[in-house]
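User: Hi! I have a protein structure encoded as tokens and I'd like to know what sequence might fold into it. I'm fairly new to this, so please keep things simple.
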């Protein structure tokens, strides 16, 4: 499986980091070793001094495909979860400044935490999914899928022009505003439509 991630997919988040609104999706990847299995502890990585959380909706790919047309894209994912794209912001800033790839900042071990997947049923309103993150019980991020610059179908279609999608792949669809730092001892709780779906304690 592979983990595909989208950057700058919410205008308010692009602005908070001083980035332009992209005219096509910003794509990066994480390897399988980045997946934080549930009930596995998350340890603060020793190479960073500025670890950020990014709360995101995550899609589960259920069908193999390539060059998927947008009108057919919804057949290729059938589950949704809330996840955290952990980012070593200091390393990322350094990479951006030097024009280097982001992997050291984004794709390290356990940097992709994913909660339990919920099946996307026809009555599940794909276009209006609320999600949020609480840092030590205080809400710091709140998003709605309706505010995405590129919606799920256009992301799946665009990604599949470059990377064939396979059953079991997952797609992090971008973070809304409110990203911030977390430190050892912090507890991060993620919610999908008000239901708690993921807890990560930083050790
Ligand atoms: Zn992200």
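Assistant: Happy to help. Inverse folding works backwards from shape to sequence: for each of the 203 positions I chose a residue that suits the local structure. Here it is:
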């Amino acid at each position: 499986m592979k983990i595909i991630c989208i950057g700058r997919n919410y205008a308010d988040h692009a602005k908070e980091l001083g980035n332009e609104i992209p005219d096509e999706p910003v794509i990066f990847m994480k390897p399988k070793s980045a997946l934080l299995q549930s009930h596995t502890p998350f340890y603060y990585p020793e190479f960073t001094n500025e670890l950020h959380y990014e709360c995101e909706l995550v899609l589960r790919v259920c069908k193999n495909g390539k060059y998927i047309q947008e009108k057919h894209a919804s057949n290729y994912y059938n589950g949704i979860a809330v996840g955290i794209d952990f980012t070593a912001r200091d390393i990322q800033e350094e990479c951006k400044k030097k024009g280097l790839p982001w992997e050291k900042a984004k794709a390290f071990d356990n940097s992709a935490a994913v909660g339990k997947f919920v099946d996307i049923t026809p009555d599940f309103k794909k276009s209006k999914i609320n999600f949020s993150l609480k840092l030590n019980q205080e809400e710091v991020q709140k998003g709605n899928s309706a505010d995405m610059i590129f919606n799920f179908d256009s992301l799946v279609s665009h990604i599949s022009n470059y990377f064939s999608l396979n059953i079991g792949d997952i797609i992090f669809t971008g973070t809304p505003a409110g990203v911030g730092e977390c430190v050892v001892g912090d507890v991060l709780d993620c919610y999908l439509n008000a239901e708690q779906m993921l807890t990560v304690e930083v050790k």
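A useful reference point when you look it over: Residues 5, 7, 54, 56, 85, 172, 174-175 surround zinc ion (CB under 6 Å). Feel free to ask if any position seems puzzling.
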